[in-house]
Amino acid sequence: MVDLNTYLVIGALLFSLGIFGVITRRNGVAVLMGVELILNAANVNFVAFARFGGMDLSGHIFSLFVIILAAAEAAVALAIILNIYNNMGTINIDEADQLKQ
Amino acid sequence: MDIVTLIIICVKALVVFAAIMLTVMAMTLAERRISAFMQNRLGPNRVGPKGLLQPLADGIKFLMKEDVIPSGVDKPIFLLAPVMLIVPALMTFAIIPFGSELHLFGRAIQLQVADINIGVLYILALTSVGVYGIVLAGWSSNSKYPLLGGLRSSAQLISYELAMGLAIVSIILLAGSLRLNDIIIQQQGHFLSWNVFKQPLAFLIFVVAVYAETNRLPFDLTEAEQELVGGYHTEYSSIKFAMFYMAEYANMITASALTVTLFLGGWDIPLMNEAALGNLGVLLSVVSFVIKTALFLFIFIWVRWTFPRFRYDQLMRLGWKVMLPLALVNIFLTAGYLTLTV
Amino acid sequence: MTGSFFFYFFAAVTLTSALLVVLNRNAVYSAVLLVFCFFSLAVIFLLLEAYFLAILEILIYAGAIMVLFLFVIMLLSLGREKAQEHFRYLQRGLSLFLVIVFFLSVLIIFLSDSGILHQPHGTFTAGGVNALGEALFTKYLLPFEVASLLLLVALIGTVYLAKRKV
Prior knowledge:
The complex is a heterotrimer. By secondary structure, chain B is an all-alpha fold. Chain B is built from 13 helices and two strands; from the N terminus they run H-H-H-E-E-H-H-H-H-H-H-H-H-H-H.
């Protein structure tokens, strides 16, 4: 039987990978993918706590809300990226550093 | 889980897979023969008696053709795309019950590969994944017509998935369960207990959405021969091209079986108690399921050769401004009815 | 036994694909690998008896969010990211160092706790749809409504951001 710590370590690894992606990637869409990884790391922990830690339903409900949040976040963020591309002609987040074009 | 159960599951999976593949072959012939009949032509009738061996000849030809991989394509994704299209199409069928319970050697065998209690959600999840094959095929071909086809399909599938999901919600409300077997049991009995009569609006929305999800006319904007050459599979050849066709027909078969399960009582024969007849009843239930599915497959072909294609803006308007509100109203009415009566 | 084999296999798939998502320069490859990552995560959820969440993970993440990502990537025809060589190595090295420090510190916290939580909880009822639905409409009604409001706001915001300026 796999114990709680294994799940937590996997969650932490996913989280670290997500942060690494957010820091190092230049492409705006790829940065968002890093954010999705971070959110999923949280989900793994919540579901693991639901199974092991007696969080029971609350863990599931919370990760349900995380998924809802991710959907809303992705839609808005992608719309912003489309706008950045329209205004500046690039989605490299290092180059998009001006408030006005 | 003992070894016999495992063997039974494997046999069921194999039988279902073989049945789908055979039906795909039959469908390629049926499509051409029926379209010929509708257009007052003969259609393929040379290979074998009445042209019955035509699919076999087609298959051999597909295998023998040179497999061209254009130099500009993104190779890994180009190779992955047909697989990602056909796998969800076949996986969906795993949870569709195709007959009542079979009793053999003192064992009760459910005629269904896997009976999971959130079956409806499983179907929705796999349908939503099916879009990847088309989008990735369009992108990796590195050619403008496939890309346009891929973009169109991703927008189309997302739009119609919503209407489809909401149409199913009203069925779930009636059955009070997400298991497909429970939905069939709820429809047993009289003709009028079928969901097609209880939920005509949901049935209409579902069928339209299914046509959009399978990229069939009048919603085949993703391949639209006249505008996009061949759409997302323009650059594919040989067996990979055949895989796209297999996926299309497999999708149609799954969609028909699903429509039958959700709206036409599945394997149920109205006004008849299959359980009383023993294994003969089981056989009859399978036959009834096959007949109903075949009817829907015929309608698929019939519609294809009868209706003109929608324009893209019309498609989007229909999806978002007609189908979605109608589905919401239907859910509201169903829920209201259930609250008042139950 | 088979359960833990499945777990380690899919955990490996998840982490490998997540690593490749982060390292791959081609945005489309990243997106496809992220879809694989979500699928194997869904299997891990299944092993944790979170059936509804596993399906939702595929339905919403793989089926909706990632399709949106791919759609945007294809619309902007983003190919490979150009490597910016100056100060890139320094940045990569520094971020790698920080991430490793973060991971190790989290690991220390995990490994130092008591063993109470390590056994599966006895009265585990969640996972099915019925229990979740009931909780959602009774105990968690307010968060549920707030979430729906959030979705509405996101919807309006997206439409406003994406529409052409009049």
